[in-house]
Records
---
Amino acid sequence: MRFRWLAVFPLLYAAGFLLVAWWLQGASALTLFVPGQRIVVRILAVAGCFVAASVFERGDHLRRAWLWLGWGAVAILVRDLLRLLPPFQPASAGPGAQITLSGFGILSNVALLAGVWALARSWKMAAIELPGGRSGIIAVAAVTAVLAVAVAGPGALKSARELAAGDWGSLILFVSAVVDIISLCLITPLLLTAVSLRGGMFSWPWGLVTASQLSWLLYDAAAGLTPLFALGGFPMAETFRGMAENYLFVAGVAQYLVIRQVRRAAG
Amino acid sequence: MTSIATSVAEQIAERLTPYIGQFNSRMWVKAVARRELGLAPEELTSAHLGTLLDGLRPSLSTLMGRGASEDLLLQIRREVR
C-alpha cells in the first residue's frame, strides 16, 4: 500500500505545483516560486538516491548505481544553487562562471547516465527473464529510440552544427542532448525489468525509475515545444522536471523499503 | 517421492515470489536446477538445496545486495524441507 502512495506522490506534487503556479500567474512571486521549488525537488532526488545507496553494502552493484545517480543529482543541485548567486546569473555571468556551470552540468549528465546504465543492465546481471521475447523487446526498444531521437535529436543536431562551427559554448548542450538520447533509450530495459518483476516488491523501484525517465522524456518534449505545451502560461516543462526528480526520490525510497522488508522478513 | 521433490522447487519459488514475482521465481529455480545440477525442477530434493541456493546467490546479490540476499538464503535454508 505504501508503494502505491509513493507512486502517487509525484503526481500530487505536480498538481500542487500547477495549482500554486496558476494562483501566482502573472505575479512576480512566480519567478521566485519556480526556481525555489526546483531546488526542493533536486534535494528530494539527492535524498532518495542516498537513502537507497545506504541500504546496500560496499561493492554491491546497486549501491554503485544509486551512488552515481546521487552524485549526479548533487552536481545539478550545486549548479542550480550557484545560478541563484549574482555572479552566476545569466545577465551577469562571465566566461569563468559559465564554464563552472557547464562543468557541473556535464558532470551531472555523465553521472546520471552511469547510474541509469547500471540500473538498466541489472536484468542481464541478475538473469531476469524479460517479457515479450526477442521481438517484443526489439519493438519496445524501437519505439523508445524513435521517441528519444524525435525529442532530443533536433537539439543534438543543432548543437553539433554549432560545435562544428567553433562555438565551444554549445558543448554542454551537445553532451546534454546525447546523454538524453541514450538515457531515454534505457527506458526499455528499465520498463521491461519492472514488468518482468511484476507481483514482486522489486518491481517498484524499477517501475518508479522508469516513471522518472518517462517524465524526463515529457520534460524534453515540453522544453522543445514551449509555445505548444505552455497551456495557458503554465510552466509545463518545470512540472515534468519536478515529476522526474520526485519519481527518482520515491524510487530511492522504494528501493530502501524493499531491502529493509527482505531483511526484516528473513531475520 | 515426486511430490516431495516438486515441493522443494515450489517452496523455494514461493519464498522468492513476494520479492521478484512468480514468473522470475520459477524461472530462476528452473535455470539454476538445470545449470548447476542438470535436473528439472520436479527432480529436486532437499539434498540439492545447498547447490541450488549457491546457484541463486549471484542473481539475488545483484538485485538485493549481498546482505539481504544472504539473509534470504538463510531463511530459505531454514524453512525449506
Note: Confidence is low (pLDDT under 50) at residues 1-5 of chain B.
---
Amino acid sequence: MPKDSKIKHVLIIGSGPIIIGQACEFDYSGSQASRSLREEGITVTLINSNPATIMTDPVTADNVYLKPLNPESIAEILDEHAGIDAVLPTMGGQTALNLAMECDDMGIWKDYDVRMIGVDIDAINITEDRQQFRDLMESMGIPMAPQKTAKSFLEGKEIAQEFGFPLCIRASFTLGGTGASLVYDPEKFEKLLDSGLHKSPIHEVMIDKALLGWKEFELELLRDKNDNVIIICSIENFDPMGIHTGDSITVAPAMTLSDRTYQKMRDMAIAMMRRIGDFAGGCNVQFAVSPDEEEEIIAIEINPRVSRSSALASKATGYPIAKIAAKLAIGYTLDELDNQITKSTSAFFEPTLDYVIVKIPRWNFDKFKGSDRELGLQMKSVGEVMGIGRSFQEALQKACQSLEIGRNGMGADGKGINNQDEILESLQHPSWNRLFHIYDAIKMGIPFKTIHDKTKIDFWFLKQIEEMIFFESEIEKYTVDTIPKDVLFTAKQMGYADRQIAHLMGCLESAVYNKREEYNIKRVYKLVDTCAAEFPAKTPFYYSTFEEENESHSSDREKIVVLGSGPNRIGQGIEFDYSCVHGVLAAKECGYETVMINCNPETVSTDFDTADKLYFEPVFWEHIYDIIRHENPVGVIVQLGGQTALKLAEKLTRYGIKVMGTSYESLDLAEDRGQFSNLLAEKEIPYPKFGIVESAEQALELASELGYPLLVRPSYVLGGQKMKIVINDDDLEHHVVNILKAMPGNQILLDHFLDGAIEAEADAICDGEDVYILGIMQHIEPAGIHSGDSYAVLPPYNLGDYVIAQIEDITKTLAVALNTVGLINIQFAVKNDTVYVIEANPRASRTVPFIAKAYREPYVNYAAKVMLGAKKVKDFDFKPHKEGYAIKIPVFSFDKFPNVNKELGPEMKSTGEAIHFIPDLRHNYFRKVYSERNLYLSR
Amino acid sequence: MKFKHRPDAVLLLQDGTVFRGKAVGQIGTATGEIAFNTGMYGYQEIFTDPSYYGQMLLLTTSHVGNYGIAADEIESESIKIEGLVCKKFSENYSRPAAVESLQDYFVKNNRVGISDVDTRALTRHIRSQGAMNAIVSSETSDIEELKAKLKEVPSMEGLELSSKVSTKEAFFFGDESASHRVAVLDLGVKKNILRCLAERDCYLNVFPHDASFEEMEKWNPDAYMLSNGPGDPSVMEEQIKTVGKIIDSGKPTFGICLGHQVLALSQGLTTSKMHNGHRGVNHPVKNLATSRCEVTSQNHGFVVDWASAEANENIEITHQHLNDDTLAGIKVLNKNAFSVQYHPESSAGPNDSRYLFDQFINNIKKHKS
C-alpha cells in the first residue's frame, strides 16, 4: 500500500533548547524526518526555538519557525499555513509530545483539521500515566516491578511500609528522570516523596520496589500501519538497574542474552507496542532481567516516539530509524521500502551486527559545584560518545579514547588510582569514573567477587576487562625493540592506542607507531552495513579495526577532512555540529569529496548521508592521522569542530598536513596571551591589564600590581573551565592552588577585571584581506558572566555609534592582523566608552549559528568556502534580513542538580540556547530579562 | 592469573584462500561446506541443528560463547556442525543457568574450530564466490597437506545427508492422550518442531527418514509433519515418493525447510542450489495472503524454483522472501498440504511464524470433523 496521498503538508515539532535528558539527538531525528518527508514531495514546516540546529535551516525544511514551543506559536503557524494537514510530534522528544498533547487538549488540531501522525494520543497517555500503563501490562500478562501510585504524602508512606526498602520513587509525566530517586531509608524517602509530588505536573508519584542489580536492556522497534513490527537493535546496559539508561554505559548488540531470553523479550516488546495504541512509527522498550537462573523479564517502560536510544541505535546499526519512521507515519509499510544502506534489500528486516558498539556518557559535574555526583535514576550526563570495534574490548577502548577527559583510553596511561578505599567507595557509589575504577580495582587485585558484589556488573563484562589487564602484563614483558608482531597486533586489536602501548613499554608513542609501520600493522576500515556483509552495501559509513581486509578505498578525487567536535559538553555543544555539517556541505559544493570524522552518535554530522565518507572514529590523534594517511586529503578543516578539533591543529601542522583557512600559527597567536597582547599593543587596541603566573606566590605578587577584582583562569581551556573572579588575596591564593592541583604545570592567566563593564561580541568572516562583520551582539548581563551563559541581543540595544565604530574597527584590524581565513569571534568589554578586547578566537563560535538564523544567511557555508580558498569575502552578496532584535537565551539544566544554586560567573554552565525575536525594545520580554540582569551573578 | 594463549589454527577454502586464527575446541582437523549465519544470538541452538550437518559454520557476529551452554537449549543431542569459524570466542561465560563453557562443549563433542579470523572478509568472500568446501586445522599448518585432504571432501550438491542425522528407530514424543496424532518424517528434525507440536496437543511418532508411507499409516496418524534436515533434496528419491503418497492421502501435511523442498519435488516442482544460501534469524518474509510480514529464522542452501511453482496450477505461492524475492512457502491447492522454506519453530530466532503451527492444527481439526 503506498503512502497516504491526502497528506501534503506536515508540521514537525522540534525539541527546543538542549537540556540534560534531551540533547541534539532530536536535531538528528528531526532533520532526518524532514528530509524523508520532502523526498516524498510533502511540504514540511518546522518549529523549534533552538537556533543551533540543522533542522531549523532552510536546507532542511520548507518553512522554519524559530518560535517558542507553545500552543500560541502552533496556532500562529497553522493560521499562516492553512495547508498543513498533519503534525508529526514524535521527532522532538518529550517536549514535542507534551506540546502536541497540550494542543490536543485545547482542541487546536481539531480546529485546524490537522491529523496527528506517527503516534496516537492514547499511546502517549497510556505510556506516561504509569498506573494506566501498569494496568494494561497486567492485563497482557507482562510482569512489572511491584509499584503503586501516591497522590498524597500519606499514601506514599503507606506504600513504603508495604514494599520495604530500597525503593524507587519517581514523578509522573517528567523528562529524563526528573524527580526519580532510589531510596534506602525512610528519612530520605519522605524528603523525596515531597519533592516528587511537587515536581510532577499532575502531582503524582510512582513508587516501585527497586530491582537493584537486575540486568537492563532496551529494544528499538519500528511498526507500520499493517502492524508489521521489527526490532532494529538490542542494547545491553553495562551498568545494571539503578542507573538511568542515559547515564549508563551501553553495549550493542546485547552481549549476555541467550536466544531464548532474547526472543521472550522481543515477543513482549512487540506485544506491548501493538497494545498501547494504533500508530505507525518508532518505539523504545526497556526491560530488566533477573541475574539468576530464572532470567525473569520485567517491563520497565515504553516510549512511543523516537528517543535518545533510537539515535544511538541508528548509528549503531546503520538503520536510519527517524527517516523510516517518518515514511511509516505517512502510510508506507516496511515491506515496500528499501533498506537505505544496501538499497537492494527490504526495509522490513532486523539489522545484524558483526561488530560491537559501546556508548559512554559524558558528564560535566565540574560545572555544578556542590552537585551530587553519584549516578542514579535521574540523568546527569550532558553528552555521549560511541566506540565501534570488532570486539567489545576494542569498542570499549575506542569509546574511552573518544571521551576527551584527558585519558588515552581505559587505563595504561598512568592516570589510574591505587587508593583502595577510594576505589571501593567508587564501585559502590558510581560516578562518571566508575569504569576506570573497575579497571584500577582489577589491576590492584581486589577480588573479582568484591567488584561484582559492589557493582553488580555482569561477570562477562568484568572478565573482558580482566583479560585486557592480563594482556597488559604480556606487553610489559617487552620493550619496543623486542615486542613480537603478534603481541603488538593483539594489543591493537584490543583497541589499545599507541600511546597506551608506549606507556606500558616505557617508550615514545612515535616509537610504537614506527614499530607498527615496520611490522605492517595497519588500521583497516570496515563498513557499517546493517547486514553483517550478507549483501553489498552502498553507504560509506566506516570504522577502523586491525584485521586483514580494508573495505575503504580512497578515490582519486580531491578530498577535505572535517574534524567533528566529539561528545557534547557544556561549552561545546550542538552549535559546533551545526558548523561541521555546513562545512561538509560547502566543501561538497566546491567540488571536494568530503570526509567526516566524529564519534558523537547524537549528531547530524555522523548521519551516513551528510558527508561523502563518514569515519565513525574517536577525534583522537592516532585515529585521525591514520585516516588522513589513508585518504590523503588536500587539507583538514579544524575551525568548525570547536576546541576538540582546534587543539589538533598544532600536530597536524607539525606532520605537514594542511589546515584549511586560518593557520595554526594564527590560532596559536590568538590563544597565547603574551603574544596576543603584544599584537594588541602594537595595533593600539586597548585590553585589560594582565599577567601570567605559574604559582600562587607569583599570583599574589602580580595581583598587587594589577589590582582587584581579578579574573583568574588556566590558559588553553574550554568554556571558561576553572575561570573565576576573585576580589582578595585569600580567594586568589585558594583558586590558584586549586587550578594547579587539577592541572599541574598549567600556566595561569590573571586579568584585571573591568568591573561594571558591558560585554559585547562580534563574529566576522575574513579572507586574509577583507573582513565582513556578520553581527555584533550586546550582552544583557554585566561583564563577569560567561558569554555562553548571557542573554545576547543582536544587534546591540544601547551601544553608541562611537562604541560600535570602535568594535567594527577593532574586529577588522584584528581579523586581518591574525591572518584569519575563515571565521573569527571577538569578545569585548566596554567601559566609559572605551572598547577593550578580552579575547579573540579565529574559529566558528557558539554564536555564528544564532546570527545565521537571525539574519537568514548561510554564514558557515560562506566561511567554509573562504577557508577552502574557493571564494573571497567580496564574492558574496550579503543581504542580512534585519528586523527588530534577536535575543539569544541561555538555557540551564540546574533542575537536575537540586543541591546546586543557579549561580553564574565566568565559567559556562548553560547546556543549550533558544532564540527569541522581538520587534523593538519596548517589548515585555526584553524588559523582563533586562530587569533581572544582575540576579544570578556570583563572584 | 595470566593471559591465556591459544594455539594457532588455519582455515583453507577450496579456492585456495587461507585465513589464520586461533584454535578453539578440540585440537584437530575438520572439513565441510562453509556457510555463514548472521544471527547474533542462539549459537547453541544453531550448532545442534541437524540441518547444519556437513557445514563448516561461520558466525558473523563478533562474540560467541558469552553465555556458555545451558543443558536444555539444544535442537539435537550433539553438535551437528562440522567445525566453527568465528571472531571472538569466549571461554569465560556468564549465565547462572549455564552448565559449562562453549569450549568444554566443543571438546566433549570432539569439534574443531578457529577464532580470531577476519570473519567479515571471509563473509564477503563467500558472498561473492559462493558456497564452497573448507578445511580447518589446529594440528597442522601445512597448506599442501590440507589441500590434499580438502580435495577428498565431496560437494554438497547431489549429497544426501538426512540418513546421517535422522533417528534410526521410530520414537514417540509428547503426551499419548493428546488430541492429535502426528507422524513426523525425520529428515534431521529440530527438537523445537516436536515441542511446538506437542504444546499444541499433539502426540508424535517420529519416523526415520526412510520410513515408508505404509509403515507410517499403520500408526494411523491424523496428519504428517515433514521435517527440516541437511543436504540436497533433489537426490532424495525415496522420500519424494513417500511424501507424494502422504499428500495423495489427503491428510493434513506440513513441511518445513528440507521437508518443504521434498514436498515441492513430490508435486513436480524443481529445486536448485543457491549462491550462498540463507542462514540467519533476520530474514524478511511476506505472507502473500495476509500482506503481513514475518521476521524468520532460515537455514537453507537449496531453494524451490519460483518459476516451477508458478507454472504448476495446483500450487499456490503463499510466502515470499523480501530480500531476493525467492520462494518461501507454498500450498498444494487440491490437497491438504502446505510448507515453508523457513523455520516457524525458530530456535534460534524470532517467534513471528508460530502461527503456521496453529494453522496446521486447524487443518487437522477441520480434517477430522
Note: Residues 161 and 231 of chain B are 5 Å apart (CA to CA).
